C-alpha cells in the first residue's frame, strides 16, 4: 500500500475551524449590516439587530418534538417517492457481479481486493446520488407545492424545518446504507476463495516516527538516492555499500506486543535493477534492529524481497520471544530476549540494507511498519461503510441548505459542484498561491509581470509600487485561503482503500478528521439555511 498515514492534530483543527468560521461569519454579518443600511436607511441598523436577536431566540427555543415530527414526515415522503427502490438495483448487481469478478484475476489475494473495492464502490454510487437528489429537492418542492406555507404558519421555526429535513433524509439514507453494508459484507465473505480466507483480516500497523538514510560512505542523509523515477514517493539505497534506510520507532505499545507474544514487521520495498543479475532470484535484503537505549544490534536473517506479491504473509518478518542472531564483526551466535533486551525502553531503529552490489532498493515511510495483533475484517469494512455514511450526511447537509435559497435544479448543480471540488481538490496553481510556493507572486504581481514580460523568477525592484502589490496580493491570498476552506475535503472519507488492502482504518488519521469535517459544516449550514428561509419569498415558486 503506497500512501502515508499522517496523524490529525485535534487542537490545530479546532483552531483552524474557528479562524475560517469566525472570518466568514464576521464578513457575512458586516455585509448584511451594510445591505440593511443601504436598503432601509438609518432604521436598517435597528432591523438588522432585531433580526439577529430573533434568530438567536429561535435557535434557543428549538423543540425536539417538532423536529421529530418533520423527521417522520420526511421519511414518509421519501418512501412514497420510491427512494428505497435502490435496493433492487443493488440486489441485481450482487446477483451478477460474482460471475465477472470471480475470474478477473488469477491470484486469490487480488480477488479479495476486487470484491471489497466493488462492493464499497457500489454502495457509494448507489447511495450518495439518491440522497443528493432527495435533499436538494426537498424544501424547494415544499415551497412549490405550497405545503411549507402550512408549516410556517404553525409554531414551527425555520431551523426546525431544516433539522427535520436533515434527520429525515439521514434516517432514510442510514436504513439504505445499513442494509447494503450488511448484505455486502456477507456477500464478500461468501465470495472469497477458501485458500485466501487467511488474507481476510484487518491488520493494525504502527508506522515509524521518523525516517532517515545513510549514503554509500555511511554519512547521514535526509533522503536516499533518486533513480530517476517520476513518482518520487520512494528513496533508494545502493546495494553492497554502507547505505542504509533507518526507521525509528518510539513509544511502542509493549503490552499489545506482549499480548501477541511476538514482533511482526511487514515491508513493501521496491527493487530497482541497474543490470540483469540473476533474473531467477530476487534482490537480497537484511534488517538490523537497534535498541536506541542500550545500542544492542540484532541482525535478522537475510531474505529475498517479495516485490510482486500482495500477500501479507509473504512480506511479514516474525520475531519470537527468544531471538538468535550472529553478532556483527565476530559472527558469534547469541540469543536475546525480545521484550527484555531488544524492545527495552520502547524505542528501536530498524536498519534496512541491500546486499546485491549494483542494485537498488526503494522505500518510503509506510513501506515498513510493525504489526499489532490483527483485528477482524468486519472492523475495517464497517469503518469504511461508516465513512460512506459521513459523506452522505455531509451531502445531505449541503443539499438541504442549498435548497433553502435556490430552486431544486440549481441546488442540485451547486451541491454537485461543491462535492466535485471537495473530492478533486484545488488545482496546483491555486494551492501554490495559497501556500506561497507559487513562483511569480499573487494575482497583482503576476499581472504586473505579464504586462512587462518579466520572468516569474526575476526579482522586482523594491519601491512604492512593489509594496502596494504586496499588500494587495496578501489580501487576495487571504481571500483565496478562506474560499478554499469553504469546500469540504472528501479525501478523509475515502476509507475503502484501507479495507481493500486489509489495513484497519486509523482513528486519528481518518475517522476523527472525517467526523470533524462533517460537524464543521453542520453549524454554518444551519445558520445559512435559517436566514435564507427567513428572507425567502414563500409565494415564489
Search tags:
541 residues, alpha+beta, seven-stranded antiparallel beta sheet, four-stranded antiparallel beta sheet, 16 helices, 16 strands, 15% strand
Shape: globular
What is the count of helical runs? 16
Low-confidence stretches: none
Average pLDDT, rounded to a whole number, is 81
The total strand number stands at: 16
What is the makeup of the main sheet?
A: 7 strands, antiparallel
**Beta-strand content estimate:** 5-15%
N-C termini distance:
52 Å
Radius of gyration: 29 Å
Classify the helix fraction into a percent range.
40-55%
* Class computed from helices, strands and strand pairing: alpha+beta
Walk me through this protein's architecture:
The chain has helices spanning 10-40, 43-60, 64-80, 86-101, 108-144, 147-152, 158-191, 254-260, 338-342, 377-402, 408-424, 428-435, 443-451, 464-484, 496-500, 507-535, and strands at 201-207, 210-214, 220-221, 235-238, 244-249, 263-267, 270-273, 284-291, 297-299, 303-304, 316-319, 322-326, 333-337, 348-354, 359-363, 368-376. With 541 residues, the protein is α+β, with helices and mostly antiparallel strands. Among the domains are: 64-199 and 376-425 and 487-535, no CATH class; 234-363. Strands 2, 3, 5, 8, 9, 10 and 14 form a seven-stranded antiparallel sheet that branches. Helix 5 (108-144) packs parallel to helix 10 and helix 10 (377-402) packs across helix 11 (408-424). The relative contact order is 0.14.
